[in-house]
Every structure is written in structure tokens, then in C-alpha cells.
Amino acid sequence: MIIGGIGFTLISAAFFMGLVAWYSYIKTKGEVSDSAGYFLAGRGLTGTFIAGSLLLTNLSAEQLVGLNGQAYRTNLSNMAWEVTAAFAIIIMATYLLPKYLGGNFTTLPEFLSKRFDEGVRQYTVMLFMLGYILVTAPSMLYSGALAVLQLFNVPELFGISYEASVWIVIWIIGIIGAIYAIFGGLKAVAISDTLNGVGLIIIGLLVPILGLIALGDGNIGDGMKQIATTNTEKMNSIGTEKDSVPFGTIFTGMIFANLFYWASNQYVIQRTLGAKSLAEGQKGVLISGFYKLLVPLTMMIPGVIAFHMYGDGLKSVDLAYPALISDVLPNWMSGFFLAVLLGAVLSSFNSLLNSAATMFALDIYKARFNREADDRKLISVSKIAGTLLAVVSLCIAPLLMNAPEGLWDLIRRFTGFFNIPIIVILLVGIFTKRVPSLAAKVVIIFHVITYYMLVWGTQHLFDFVVPIHFIHIYAILFVVEVAIMLAIGFWKPRTTPYTFRSEAAIDMVPWKYTLPVSVILLALVAILYVVFSPIGLAYARGYVSPAFWPVTLGILAVTVALSFLVVKKWNKTYAQYLKSENAITERKVCPTTEFQPTVYKY
């Protein structure tokens, strides 16, 4: 499919992308000369840039095309992957982020080395690197290439084969993304992500509006009425056992999968580690949670609209979003859309590449080979590592053309190899003092073998399929592995208990709205599930059921009560808790207000 004139589209897309690159260069010029500037943006990121970067790091062409395709095929149950991330985001903002910033960590493996030992650090780096470079980064590039190929008939336009088109598009996207990550450092990534994030929100909101207008023959109200009263099962987010995301999985393995992603995944949390203060970090993390609530509207409702416009006549469910874009987006906006689409892909790729290079330089090169390496050497090593990692990913990505059907589900399953053991080790390490490094190493080896056997191994070896959804397997292994670590800690505890010591390099005063905003965020998640449920817009005998308004008003009443309690009591308790966590007697204490924790200067 071709949107408008291809020449105009490419020129205007290049203009918008060039504008983002120019602004990112201007804002970062001369600020990546030391390791703090290169790896953590000089610890100067504000909440706005953190939120924007988190949004674009998380969202890519895979979501734009894939989630809309799932909504076209079934219903809105897949929104759970995005919306329920709010629970993990709140835990990250309120509890784990103060730990990370208080400990002055650059990477998660660095924290694990202090809590356990260097062996655990190397194990986790290995899990991260293999997952990032062999699967996550290639899948990002491949999904982006597919989106471009679906929107623009590249083989026909340039007279080349489909395979050659995939290779060319992947390498173009990858090289541009690598330039941001390798030569600009984290701040360039964060700034470009924020600018692209603004574009993504504009396009994301515009497409469903234009789609509803087209569906209603020029009247947006008629379009809304059609999707709310016909084929209402499409508006249901409560997945059954037949759906790819059964509703029950939200309360089992998905909690831990999201907690890993938002609270321990290096290429996500690195943005927060570059915060200029705890308050700015918390603000950025929580704002990103509100962005996630827009996902059903921006990345799933267009798929529902496509179903109403085209029925089940599309050759592939992944054509739903590109087909809708082709029909409803004005020709003059085609270049802007392509720039936003590529920006989403670039963001995820360059963020991952930046984090992988950071871990290589700090957790492998400096930790094992050259502990005396200066900033110049670390940045040089990071750039070389980033270049090599980018080349490996670019070579692997096109090979995904030969993968079997169900590639995206396969990728989500693959992340199970490293997400659960890492979050298990992190949480046990934080909440216990005597569990030894041996326990972490045993859990990593146990998980990799057991997870493979439960998800694939029994079928490969014994022609037997374990009748448990892989998300439930996440939860089962989480519980088992926590028990293993605690048992080893009881059997062979550390000789000296681990003690967290605050070494914060930034102000550790929390954002005063952290807890009230967290309560509101949880309430909106609950309301969103009520809206997209059989008592909401999926109600078959009208717009909404008679129970809709009482349930919604009940949630709002509880939210108001909890918010009042938070402001009156919990804010002070929370501030005092953070104060005690970071208090060490020999440090200089600066005056603070009654409701704020101590600020430490070094």
C-alpha cells in the first residue's frame, strides 16, 4: 500500500526525522565527555524527558501493528500487557527507584554485585545480553521493517525482491538508531524519544478519530455508535481461556513480567537512573503510567474500527492498522506518520543498544578486565561494543523471515528465559539480608532448564504439551524460585548480613504527589477495565449495562477516600521512611521541611 506520493512521503519523513536529530545534537553537544554524561545523561534528566523516553522505549511498530491486529482478530484482551503495567510502575516509583538512586547505581547488575557477588553480576549480564542481542533487538528491527513494507510496497517501488527489501529496510533503521545510541549517549536517546513521543501521541489519537469519522460516513458520533452497539464482543477486555491473554493471568505471571520490565529491565530503568533528583525520577515514571492508559485508544480501537470497515476480509490480521492508515490518513500527513513510525522503532532499538553497551563497558570490561579504566576509555569501549552489538542484531533480524508463524507470541515466550529469574533475584536480594550468592546462581541455572522444559522441552523430547499457559508458568516458577533462594539462605546463610548504604549523588526528596498520583493511576486502570467489559461498552443490549454507573461511581468514591488518607497521613509516613532509609550519621544533613526526607550533599 502506498500513502500519497512516495517522493513527498520520503522527503517529509526525512525532514521530521532530521529535525529531531538536529535538536537532539544541539541539546547534547559537549555533554557526553564523561561516563556520567554518556551513560546517565549527566544525571540531569527531568520527569518530562524520562516519561517521554520510557514511552518510546516501550512502544514500537510491534505494538502499533500487532496490538491492532489482535483487536481486529479477537477483542481488547491483549491490552492487559500495557494497561496493567501500572501496578509495576507504581512499585518502581515508590519503592525500587529510591533504592536505585540512593545506592547511586548505573546498572542493575552493579546492584546485584554489591548485594551478592561478581559471579551473580556476570550471570545476569549474560542473560540480559543474550536476550537483547539475539531476540529483542532483532525482533524490534524486523517488526519495524514489516510495518514499513506493509505500508509501502517497497519491492514494487524499487524493483527488488521481498527478501532484499527486508534486509535494506532493517539496515537503514538499525544504522540510524545505532548512531543515536553510540555517538549521542543516553541524553540524545532521551531527547529524541521525547520528541518522537509527542508525534506518536498526535498520530495515535488522530487515527481513531479519523477512523470513527470514516466509519460514520463523516459523522464521528455515528462511528462511535456503531462500534458500541454492533459486534460488541470486540470491545471486551476480559479475556477467556481461548484468548491469548486470559483475564486470570493478570493476577499471576503478568504481575511479575511487568515488574521485571518496568523495575529491573536495564534498557528501561536506565532512563530513571539518569534522573536529576528522586522527585523528577518518580514524576517521569508515574507519568509514563498514564501514557500506558492511552494504549487501548491509540493501539487497539483502530483495529476494532478496521474490523467494522473491512470485516474479516484482510489477508492478515497485521494488515488491519496499515489498511486503516492508508484509507483515513490525509496524504499530506503521510511523511509525518512514517517519521513517527520509524521513530518508535528507532527509540526501542537505540535505547536497548545504549543499555547493552553500558552493561558491557561497566559490568564486563571495567568489572573483569580493567578496573582502573577512566571515563574516556569506558566511553570508547562502549562505542566499540555498541557498534559490534548493532551489527550482530542487524545480521540476525532479517533471518526472522524464516521463523514459523506466531513469531510475536514466540518472542513473548522467549523473554521468560530471563525476566523471572532476574526479578526473583532482585526482590529476594532487597527483602532479605542473609541469602547468599549461591542461591542466585542456582536459581538462574534452574530456571533456564525448567522453563525450557515446561514451555517447549516436553513437546520436543516426549511429544507432550504441558497444559498450562506460559504466563501462569511465570508465576509458578517465581514462587518456586523464591522458595529455593530462601531455603538455601536458611541452609547456608551469609556470614555477615547485607546492609544497604545510601550513596546518593542527587537530592532524595520524594515528589510530593507520588502517592496521590499512584492511587489515581490504579483507579483509572480499574475504570478502564469496567469501560471495556460486559458491563461497559461490551454490553450486548445497549451502550452500557445498568451496573456500569454504580460500579464506576463506587471506584471514584474509594479513590477520593484513599487520596484524602494519603494526603493527610501516608505522605508524611512515606517521607519519613525514605529519610530513615538514606540516613547515615556521618553524613552532612541539610535542613528540610517536616514532610520531606533529608537531602544529602557530597
Topology, please?
Elements: H1 6-28, H2 35-40, H3 47-58, H4 61-73, H5 80-83, H6 85-102, H7 108-115, H8 118-151, H9 154-158, H10 162-215, H11 220-229, H12 253-263, H13 266-273, H14 278-292, H15 295-299, H16 301-310, H17 320-328, H18 334-369, H19 375-396, H20 407-414, H21 419-431, H22 437-462, H23 470-491, H24 514-531, H25 548-581, E1 589-590, E2 599-600
Antiparallel strand pairs: 1-2
Helix pairs in contact: 1-10, 1-18, 3-10, 3-13, 3-14, 3-18, 4-16, 6-12, 6-14, 6-24, 7-8, 8-10, 8-18, 8-19, 8-22, 10-11, 10-16, 10-18, 10-19, 12-21, 12-23, 13-18, 14-24, 16-17, 18-19, 21-22, 21-23, 22-23, 24-25
Number of helices: 25
Beta-strand content: under 5%
Give the oligomer, counting copies of the same chain as homo and different chains as hetero: single chain
Helix content: over 70%
Please identify the top-level CATH class of the largest domain.
Answer: Mainly Alpha
The average pLDDT value, as a whole number, equals 81
Distance between the termini: 59 Å
User: How would a textbook summarize the main sheet?
Assistant: 2 strands, antiparallel
Radius of gyration computed on alpha carbons: 24 Å
Full CATH superfamily name of the largest domain: Sodium/glucose cotransporter
Identify the strand order in the major beta sheet: 1-2
Write structural notes for this entry.
The protein is an all-alpha fold. The chain is about 70% helix and about 0% strand. The chain contains 25 helices and two strands. The protein has helices at about 5-30, 35-40, 45-60, 60-75, 80-85, 85-100, 110-115, 120-150, 155-160, 160-215, 220-230, 255-265, 265-275, 280-290, 295-300, 300-310, 320-330, 335-370, 375-395, 405-415, 420-430, 435-460, 470-490, 515-530, 550-580; strands at about 590, 600. Helix 8 (about 120-150) crosses helix 10. The longest helix has about 55 residues, at about 160-215. It is globular. Mean pLDDT is about 80; it is low at about 30-40 and about 585-600.
